[in-house]
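Fibronectin type-III domain-containing protein
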Amino acid sequence: MKRVVLSVLLFSTVLGAQAQRQSARSKVAAAQPAAPAPAPPTLTAARAAGPGATVTVRGVVTNGPELGQLRFVQDRQAGLAVFSTTNTDLHALIPGDSVQITGTLKNYNGLLEMDPVASVTKLASGRPVVPIEVEAADLATVFTDEYEGRLIRIKGLTSLTTATGTPIEALKGNTNYLLNGQRATPVRINVASMGEKGLLEKTPPTSTFDLIGTVSQFTQNGTGGYQLLPRLYTDFVVAGGLPAIQGEPIPTNIYRNGFTVLFQTANPGTTKVEYGKTSALGTVINLPAPTTSHSVDIPNLEPSTSYYVRVSSTNAAGTSTSAAVPMLTDNKKKPAAK
C-alpha cells in the first residue's frame, strides 16, 4: 500500500513539473511581440511590376485637387500616378500627406498609374515634399520615364510661351505651353487649377524664374509625350522664392499727421515698415499676413515733416529689404474714408 501511494505521489510530481514548464513556455511565447508586417514594396519595385499587377505602396502626396481626380505619390526613389473618379479618400489628400494605397496598375496613354484604387490609408500629414532640382539648360534630362511621377524644380527659365512661340497673356486649362521655346519639354495646365491660387488666367513671370511641377506622360504610341504638370501659381518661383520688393515704396493718402505706404513684392511675404525723422528710424509696424500688395497706414506724425521710411518682407525663403527713402507729410486734413 505504501508503494502504491508513493508511486502516485511521484507521478503527480512529474505531471506538476511538466505543467509548470509548459505554463512557463506559454508565458514566454505570449511575452514575445508578434513579428511586424512586412513593409510594402518601394515605388520602384511597384513600377517594375507593371500594368495588371495589384500592389500596395507607401509615399508622400505631392498635389491636391488642382490636378483634378489625379494624385501623385513619391518616395525617395520614384513616383506614381494614382487616379480614381469615385474614391473620396483619395480626393481628400493634399501635399504632404503620407499614405498607403492599394490598387491595380494600368497604362494610360504611356503613363503608369494606379487605377482602380482599392484602398487609401492616410498615415500622417505635413511631410516635406522636396522637388528634384535641375538647371534649365538640362531640363530635357528629367523628361524621361525615370522621373515620371516625381516632383521637379527647373531653375533659371527665361520664358513660357504658347505653342507658336508667342507671349502668354493668360494661362488656359488643358493647354500645352513651351519652356524656353523647346517643344520636347512642354508644360500642361490642368483645367482644375482655378481660383485665387490656381494657374488659370494667370500671366507667367516675364523675368527669370523657376518652375515646379510633376513629370507626367501622354502619348498615343507609348513613347515620348512627357510633360510637366505645375499645380498652383506659386509653382512659378521668382527671385528664388524671396519676397523680392519691386521698385521703391511710395506714399499715398498724404495728410498733415500721416500717410499710407504702398509697395509690391514678387512673392507673398509679411509686411514690415520702419520709420523715423532720421536714418536711424526707430519706429516699427509689422503686419503678419503674407501678401504681394503691401499697404501700411502710418499715423501720428508731425505736419510738413520729412520722415525716412524703410520697408521689408519675409517668407520661408528669407527677407527682402528696401533702402530707406524720405517721405513728407503736408498741412492738409486727413482724406475722408471712401
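thats it. The chain has three domains: 43-124, 132-238, 242-328. The first helix runs from residue 2 to 31. bye
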